[in-house]
């Protein structure tokens, strides 16, 4: 009896090809993180990224046909990592505000990602920037999430009375983004002299919450 379909050897070859493709894609994205963070989106070319990744320009185009496609993949990856970390915190019983403080603590360990976000966000204020709509959606989603949490705190009597929820949410996000910028500007200073992003966010939360944010309970 004969059989049809791929042989085990062909399947293994395909799997090896997929793995090599994933590794090469990751190399490209890691190179792009650094270059976009240093020179911005407009100041970086696909040839720059290819050179930094150790790949030919045609080889890069096989994975990413445009510079905008590289940027989109980077932003999607950043969001996926952040959302997974936040979700893991929430599943452990950590409240949203403490989870955001934890996010700032993690960001202090990944300067390349913070540099990328800050540089591209500044450029993306232009309506014709390929990430403009992405940042519009991201800010709208983040503000809405925080407003919902503030409303729940208000209803539970845990929010300082009289605060406008949207203004407070926007202030919180402004502190997070502004502290990232200040932290980047001070990254060449000794660690003890750099601003503490997480502590600054925590101090603001102490001003607006009657009940301090709670971390996950001990197991």
From TrEMBL:
Gene3D superfamilies hit by this protein: Tetracycline Repressor, domain 2
PROSITE patterns xrefs: HTH_TETR_2
Pfam families: TetR_C_6, TetR_N
Residue span(s) of domain HTH tetR-type: 22-82
DNA-binding region: 45-64
Record's keyword terms, sorted: DNA-binding, Repressor, Transcription, Transcription regulation
GO molecular function: DNA binding
UniProt keyword annotation of Coiled coil present: no
InterPro entries: BetI_C, Homeodomain-like_sf, HTH_TetR, Tet_transcr_reg_TetR-rel_C_sf
Record flagged with keyword Transcription: yes
Protein's name in the database: TetR/AcrR family transcriptional regulator
Organism: Isoptericola sediminis
């Amino acid at each position: 009896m004969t059989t049809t379909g791929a042989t085990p050897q062909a399947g293994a070859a395909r799997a090896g090809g997929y793995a090599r493709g994933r590794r090469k894609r990751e190399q490209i994205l890691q190179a792009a993180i650094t270059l976009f963070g240093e020179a911005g989106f407009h100041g970086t070319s696909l040839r720059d990224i290819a050179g930094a990744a150790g790949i030919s320009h045609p080889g890069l185009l096989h994975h990413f046909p445009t510079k905008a496609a590289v940027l989109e993949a980077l932003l999607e990856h950043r969001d996926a990592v952040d959302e997974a970390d936040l979700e893991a915190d929430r599943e452990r019983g950590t409240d949203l505000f403490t989870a955001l403080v934890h996010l700032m603590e993690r960001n202090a360990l990944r300067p390349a990602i913070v540099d990328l976000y800050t540089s591209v966000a500044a450029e993306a204020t232009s309506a014709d920037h390929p990430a403009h709509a992405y940042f519009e959606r991201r800010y709208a989603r983040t503000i809405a999430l925080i407003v919902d949490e503030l409303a729940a705190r208000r209803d539970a009597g845990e929010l300082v009375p009289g605060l406008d929820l949207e203004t407070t949410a926007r202030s919180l996000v402004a502190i997070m983004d502004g502290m990232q910028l200040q932290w980047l500007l001070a990254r060449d200073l000794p660690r003890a002299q750099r601003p503490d992003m997480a502590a600054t966010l925590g101090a603001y939360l102490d001003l607006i919450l009657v009940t301090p944010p709670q971390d996950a309970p001990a197991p």
